[in-house]
Amino acid sequence: MSALIEQIFPALTWRIRQLAMYPEKEITDMELPGDFDAMHFGLYHQYELTGVVSLFIDGTTAQFRKMAVLPSDQGKGFGLQLLQYLVDYCKSQGIKNLWCNARVSAIGFYKKIGFETVGEPYERNQLAYIKMELTF
Q: Which pLDDT does position 1 carry in this prediction?
């Protein structure tokens, strides 16, 4: 499925983060420290904001956080489309290393684009995570 991806205002990410990742929490809990210094991208499908990702750049290294797609639209390739857009954007900006703290259950998803695991898994909030990175 084709979708449009564009840079969005930080607060637009919060509803998608809440619905996709933390439905039990308040929308006011969705803001990350540094959100207003980061870049945020939104994926629109049929004119509705369907997916989001936040990019925190530090020199030639960038971390993406809180990549989320609405539950009703998961499994349609939107997450992969959003991630590929992010990779292409980082390459165009001279970023040399893109990384994230991925849920262990999503390792296969990130490996499709060439991400590799770094270090050992760890647990936070009863979920297992591992650092994954892509070097250009």
A: 62
Residue 132 has what pLDDT?
A: 98
**CA–CA separation, 35 and 56 (whole Å):** 8
- Look at residue 17 and tell me if it is in a domain: yes
Please enumerate, as own/partner, the contacts of 94-97 that have beta carbons within 8 Å and a separation of 24 or more.
94/60, 95/57, 95/60, 95/61, 95/62, 95/136, 96/60, 96/61, 96/135, 96/136, 97/60, 97/61, 97/62, 97/133, 97/134, 97/135, 97/136
pLDDT at 87: 97
Banded pLDDT at 126 (limits 50, 70, 90):
confident
For residue 20, give its domain range.
4-96
Interval 47-52 mean pLDDT: 96
In contact, 9 and 40? CB cutoff 8 Å? yes
Question: Does the residue 82 lie in any domain?
Answer: yes
